[in-house]
Specification:
The complex is a heterodimer of chains A (737) and B (548).
Chain A lengths: L1 H16 L3 E4 L17 H31 L13 H31 L6 E10 L4 E8 L1 H24 L6 H20 L3 H19 L6 H32 L4 H8 L10 H17 L8 H4 L5 H10 L4 H8 L1 H6 L1 H22 L5 H21 L3 H36 L19 H15 L5 H17 L7 H30 L7 H4 L7 H16 L7 H5 L13 H5 L1 H15 L12 H25 L13 H7 L4 H46 L8 H20 L1
Antiparallel strand pairs in A: 1-2, 2-3
Chain B lengths: L1 H6 L2 H22 L5 H22 L8 E9 L4 E7 L4 H17 L8 H20 L3 H10 L1 H11 L4 H34 L6 H6 L4 H18 L8 H8 L2 H26 L1 H5 L1 H23 L4 H21 L3 H32 L15 H14 L6 H16 L1 H8 L1 H17 L6 H4 L6 H19 L2 H27 L6 H10 L7 H16 L1
Antiparallel strand pairs in B: 1-2
Chain lengths: 737, 548
């Protein structure tokens, strides 16, 4: 049976993965750099994670029966030794990371082909017509261009590492196959998001990753708090999705299509989109509402810190490296539209910089190691929006990429720490919080690899030369200054303010990250004497991904070193390779936006608002960050930290920060509760009393009348039937004659 | 497949078979032994379903006309004929009916414990009636079927329902009977006008289309028909019978009610309201009223649904919200809107039908519908939980499910003509998450706290056989709705063209009664094109009349 099925299954899969047509839009002529780009099995990249989901999902459901029986019997399923559960452990361990590894290899082939080819216009691969009403058509089609290829590299590459790490992190979880099913499904939707050739298909991925986020945040659904967090993420994201939908309607009304290629080709030509006009501003603002939801920006950031309820590798993959950057991808993808709307772009940058600062302040006073990283992520996403908001799309995407490396590293590192802490508490049956940094301290002795790799991540995010974050964050900050000084820059003063705020937030980043490292790894251990014996380094399956990400966090920034820096002492006088490579790589995608920008704003400035060039400010920010790291090391190291259950409650402004400015409480008070009350009012007053009351009143009146004629009510069905027939006949008779 | 169907003359007899086979099955069920009634009913309805699937292949997607038509005189002195036909609007409603009947019958095996023969006989009678509603092309015949569906539903709720079943059944009956009486008056008026025009009594749908009506007449008749259909849909504020009927109805009753009976209302909008009264359907006040009522339905009932303690009532209210999208799509009067509305009808049939089936399965296990009584069920019933989550996601319109395709197209179509209303209606996607996810969480997630919940069994093979096809269809339509859309498009386009051209005629001519404008009206009403011979006959009759 299985053997007979296999060839036909393979044939069906091949049919799915084979495109109906491949079109290099616009028929790009072969440039000097090489021949035309031929995509290599792009459908398989998407299909593989989907197959992984189906396989793991089937295993999870099969496993579900058994564990359900155990729960029903009043206990838990005894997992036994790992070797004894080939179907629920070995197989998912192979399939889950395996499909990602294959997808990464195929992506790598495509990427290297694109490197050697001329790819002036996006290549769109059509599979089937998704929706067609006669006036509106959208295909299931994938778009391969520089931006999507880069995103695919990040999603499959970092995704693969996190899948591998998960094998170690989740190995003793009862829901192991289900976990990999969700994780694979997430990657599938994430790839649809970045590869889809239209806004409609992108939206499929957009809501799909939201679904997986919901399922994975609430992975341990038996815990109401975690389940609540998943629900909150979904609903808040839907507020953003509302914006995405409306923006799509506006685009369709303007262009008659939702496909990327025709929209971006027409955006500058069509008369209905004028520079700075109301329509394009509305489109960009609605899109940004969507981006703010997905990428956790003010005012919709509140779901992300709660999302830490999910397993830590999930936080690394979804809530740091990939999904939350989808909003940045959206703005970069729509760069032409945002360039046409100075108000839209200024909003993106303004909200971004505000979020960067706001979230960084909260991170200063968090004790949960994952909460620190969560607010740090919100803050770093703010930076990315600042980048794409000032027309530096390449810089925004650059930071997206480096952030994927070092934040995934930091989250996975924190996962290794929590894993170790959890085991220690598990051994002694202590019920302290394994995520609270006040219970840690001195862990470097127990987990040296995690300690070193996390320091690399910390220095990278803090902007220490020559690590990845230094180049990417500095690029953004510099671009804000340059943009504000452009010849016709709108609101130059505002951009000066943005620039200074971004610099300040960078200093806070250096501080809270160092604080986290010191509290976790340095000083004396606060876990407990008995527990400390059980603290251990992560197994190889977990630390190898850490090491790979650490390497990327060191060198990842070298792909886009600005020429000015490269030739200065910060580039060792030209020793660093690949000058502004990413910038040039993304040029075909952002060219339209840059044209618009050059036409309307003119050349950007070459000096900061208060004087000083790119190199000078890069040096200043590096030195300042280094000083803050050193200072924080001293200050936090000198503080006396006590374990969580003995710690006094924070007071004053620290308490406000600890409670995250009470924003959740505020939202509950001004949004959630009023809606719930209004819902109760609609039900109990309008529906049950007014409308139904009227209906019942009419009923009572007719009942009164009915009493008069109740002598006809004999209770005999045949009499009723007779009278009914008679009535119909009389009516018809009257009408005919 | 098509060749096979042709060789057995499928197109000639299938519609008759779909109407009369359930009636025959009813006889078989009544004749069978009590304990075998359900088996007989299920296999019979499955046969009808398989038979109806041939429609998919036999249907010509390029044509806007009624297909597989057949007609026989019935009550000749009144011009009533027994005429059936199917077009792109009714095609999927017929298949949805046969599908939901089969699954609803399969879903009542444990739920219905008393008077089984009577119950399954009524289910088959209901199927015959609903199929009849969707395939009748004679207005009188349509009305007969429309009323016929009331009777079995009344008994299903009234006999096998919950505690307040009598109240619910009577409320359901009176509400809908009140609406359809108004429609009857309207039909008779049209009958008189058609008789006056053509010189012979007729109830034929296509003859009614020829009747030229002044704006005033159209508005009155529109109101009468719209009330009848709006009660069925139901459109806010005529919806309060629905929660009661759903809560009290047995599972299969709720399934059929949600999956197909409500669709009779929106089907009526598309089949009768727009084509018969094109000018009124374009009247700004009318359009705005209907759109605003649809919008209120979407937002208001989503809020009401969110605070329901009773899971079944919650789902009942969400029906009103979903049907609001259909109303929106229809009265946007765009191709996208109408097709979106039709997909929402299909999707809602699948997802809400599945939700009621799932809630019924939970009720059989726990004998409660209160959301707070559940909790943590995903741990003991992972298969049920999976099906429930998939269905809930389709219900709230997640992309990749049928719900998204429908709502997206309906909103897109509405945006083309009424952007503000469309944007407000889009807020519905937020509130859909607000009503659905808390229920999913409270039932399947959270702590598995009580022993009753701990003992809940997972889905049986029979239950999986019910849920699997529904879930598969929701996902299939979500990824590949084009085969559905292309079958609808010509008929939908014909409706819109008729509304636009005929509506423009009436509003252009102040006095539609004069012979000249009568000419124009008739010309304009040629879409959807009536059969040529009928057209000629009408023309010659009119020429004769003019000579006199």
């Amino acid at each position: 049976m299985t053997l007979a099925l296999r060839p036909s299954l393979v044939a069906a899969l091949a049919a799915l993965a084979l495109p109906a047509s491949v079109a290099a839009q616009g028929g790009a002529p072969a440039g000097e750099s090489g021949g035309a780009f031929t995509p290599f099995l792009p459908g398989m990249i998407v299909l593989l994670p989907l197959l992984g989901f189906l396989a793991n999902g089937a295993l999870a459901l099969a496993h579900g029966k058994k564990s359900a029986d155990a729960v029903r019997a009043g206990g838990e399923l005894d997992l036994g030794e790992r070797a004894q559960r080939p179907l629920t452990h070995t197989l998912p361990s192979l399939i889950g990371p395996g499909v990602l590894g294959l997808a990464f290899l195929i992506t790598l082939v495509n990427f290297s082909r694109a490197l050697g080819a001329s790819l002036e216009e996006p290549v769109v691969v059509h599979y089937w017509t998704w929706m067609a009403t006669g006036t509106f058509t959208v295909d299931a089609a994938l778009q391969l261009d520089q931006l999507s290829l880069l995103m695919m590299m990040i999603v499959t590459g970092v995704g693969f590492l996190i899948h591998v790490f998960s094998v170690g992190y989740m190995r003793d979880d009862a829901g192991y196959p289900r976990y990999f099913a969700y994780l694979n499904l997430f990657v599938f939707f994430m790839l649809v998001l970045v590869m889809g050739a239209s806004y409609a298909l992108m939206f499929v991925g957009w809501e799909g990753v939201g679904l997986c986020s919901y399922l994975l945040i609430g992975f341990w659904f038996g815990d109401k708090e975690k389940s609540d967090a998943g629900k909150k993420a979904f609903i808040v994201n839907r507020i953003g999705d509302f914006g995405f939908l409306v923006a799509m309607f506006l685009l369709y009304a303007t262009f008659g299509t939702l496909d990327f290629v025709p929209i971006f080709a027409d955006a500058q030509l069509t008369t209905s989109l004028v520079y700075g006009g109301g329509l394009v501003t509305a489109i960009t603002l609605f899109f940004f509402l969507g981006a703010a939801g997905k990428s956790a920006q003010i005012p919709l950031y509140v779901w992300l810190p709660d999302a830490m309820a999910g397993p830590t590798p999930v936080s690394a993959l979804i809530h740091a490296a990939t999904m939350v950057t989808a909003g940045v991808y959206l703005v970069a993808r729509s760069s032409v539209l945002f360039a046409l709307s100075p108000v839209g772009s200024a909003t993106v940058a303004g909200v971004g910089v505000l979020t960067a600062l706001f979230a960084a302040t909260i991170a200063l006073q968090q004790y949960d190691i994952k909460k620190v990283l969560a607010y740090s992520t919100v803050s770093q996403l703010g930076y990315m929006f600042v980048g794409v908001g000032v027309g530096a799309y390449a810089a925004g995407v650059f930071h997206l990429m480096t952030h994927a490396f070092f934040k995934a590293l930091l989250f996975l590192g924190s996962g290794a720490v929590i894993h170790s802490m959890h085991h220690a508490y598990h051994h002694t049956h202590k019920h302290d919080d394994p995520q609270d940094m006040r219970n840690m301290g001195g862990l470097r002795a127990h987990m040296p690899i995690t300690w070193i790799t996390m320091w690399i991540g910390t220095l990278a995010i803090a902007g220490i030369w020559p690590l990845a974050g230094f180049f990417s964050k500095d690029e953004i900050i510099w671009q804000v200054a340059a943009f504000g000084g452009a010849v016709n820059a709108p609101y130059p003063l505002l951009y000066t303010l943005f620039w200074m705020t971004a610099l300040a937030a960078a200093m806070l980043t250096a501080f809270y990250m160092t604080r986290m490292m010191v509290m976790t790894f340095h000083g004396s251990n606060r876990t407990g004497a008995e527990e400390a014996k059980h603290l251990h380094e992560a197994p190889a399956v977990m630390w190898v991904p850490l090491a790979v990400l650490a390497v990327l966090s060191v060198f990842g920034g070298w792909i886009n070193v600005p020429e000015a820096l490269r030739t200065s002492f910060l580039g060792l006088g030209g020793a660093l390779p690949m000058s502004e490579w990413l910038h040039h790589w993304l040029e075909p995608v952002t060219a339209g936006a840059h044209e618009v920008q050059l036409e309307h704003l003119g050349e950007v400035a070459h000096a900061a608002p208060v004087g000083g060039g790119e190199v000078a400010w890069a040096a200043i920010s590096f030195l300042a960050a280094a000083a803050v790291v050193a200072a924080a090391f001293k200050v936090v190291g000198a503080q006396k930290t006590v374990p969580a259950h003995d710690a006094p409650a924070p007071t004053g402004f620290a308490n406000v920060l600890y409670n995250k400015y009470y924003v959740d409480e505020l939202y509950n008070w001004i949004v959630v509760q009023p809606i719930v009350r209004a819902s109760q009012f609609c039900w109990r007053v309008i529906d049950a009393t007014i409308i139904d009351g009227t209906v019942n009143a009419v009923g009572w009146v007719s009942k009164g009348v009915g009493w008069g004629v109740s002598m006809f009510q004999t209770g005999n069905v045949s009499t009723y039937a007779f009278v009914l027939t008679l009535g119909v006949l009389v009516i018809l008779g009257v009408s005919v004659f | 497949m098509t060749a096979l169907l042709d060789s057995i003359g499928y197109a000639n007899w299938v519609l008759h078979a779909l109407v009369w086979l359930p009636v025959l099955g009813m006889g078989l069920v009544l004749w069978a032994e009590e304990e075998r009634a359900k088996t007989v009913a299920f296999w019979w309805s499955l046969g009808v379903l398989v038979l109806s699937l041939g429609l998919w292949f036999a249907f010509d997607p390029a044509s806007a006309d009624f297909q597989m038509t057949s007609s026989a005189p019935w009550i000749e002195s009144w011009g009533v004929s027994y005429s059936l036909g199917v077009d792109g609007i009714s095609l999927f409603m017929v298949i949805l009916t046969t599908l939901s009947t089969s699954l609803a019958i399969l879903g009542s095996f444990n739920y219905i414990q008393s008077r089984e023969r009577a119950f399954y006989a009524l289910m088959l009678l209901l199927e015959a009636g609903v199929v009849g509603v969707f395939v009748a092309t004679d207005v009188f015949l349509f009305y007969v079927f429309f009323e016929l569906t009331l009777v079995p539903m009344y008994f299903i709720v009234g006999i096998w329902g919950g505690e307040r079943r009598i109240y619910a059944a009577i409320k359901f009956f009176l509400y809908t009977a009140f609406g359809s009486l108004l429609m009857l008056v309207g039909i008779l008026y049209l009958f008189w006008r058609a008789k006056g025009l053509l010189g012979a009594p007729t109830f034929s749908y296509e003859d009614f289309l020829l009747v030229p009506l002044s704006m005033t007449e159209q508005l009155w008749l529109f109101t009468a028909f719209a009330l009848a259909f709006s009660v069925k849909v139901p459109v806010f504020p005529l919806h309060t019978w629905l929660p009661d009927a759903h809560v009290e109805a047995p599972t299969p009753g709720s399934v059929i009610l949600a999956a197909v009976l409500l669709k009779m209302g929106t089907y009526g909008f598309l089949r009768f309201l727009l084509p018969f009264f094109p000018a009124a359907s374009q009247h700004p006040t009318v359009v705005t009223t209907m759109l605003v009522l649809g919008l209120v339905g979407i937002l208001y009932t989503a809020w009401v649904a969110a605070v329901q303690p009773d899971a079944k009532k919650l789902v009942a209210y969400t029906s009103v919200a979903h049907m609001g999208f259909v109303v929106l799509g229809i009265f946007a009067l765009t191709v996208n809107g109408l097709q979106g509305g039709l997909i929402v009808m299909i999707s809602h049939g699948l997802s809400t039908g599945a939700l009621f089936l799932l809630l019924g399965m939970l009720y059989e296990r726990r004998h409660t519908r209160k959301i707070d009584d559940f909790g943590g069920l995903a741990r003991v019933a992972p298969w049920l939980a999976t099906a429930f989550v998939i269905t809930a996601l389709a219900s709230i319109g997640l992309p990749g499910t049928s719900g998204f395709v429908g709502e997206f197209l309906a909103l897109l179509g509405t945006f083309e003509t009424h952007p503000t209303i469309a944007i407000l209606a889009t807020l519905g996607v937020i509130f859909a998450a607000y009503y659905m996810l808390p229920m999913v969480q409270k039932v399947f997630f959270n702590q598995l706290a009580t022993d009753e919940n701990r003992e809940v069994e997972d889905a049986s093979g029979r239950e999986l056989a019910i849920l699997a096809p529904l879930c598969a269809l929701m996902i299939w339509i979500g990824w590949n709705p084009t085969p559905f859309l292309e079958r609808m498009e010509p008929s939908v386009r014909a409706v819109i063209e008729r509304v636009e051209s005929a509506g423009a005629q009436v509003s252009a001519s102040a006095e539609p009664q004069t012979p000249q404008s009568l000419d124009e009206t008739v010309e304009a009403s040629s879409t959807p094109p009536p059969r040529r011979d009928r057209r000629r006959r009408v023309d010659s009759r009119r020429r004769r009349a003019r000579r006199d």
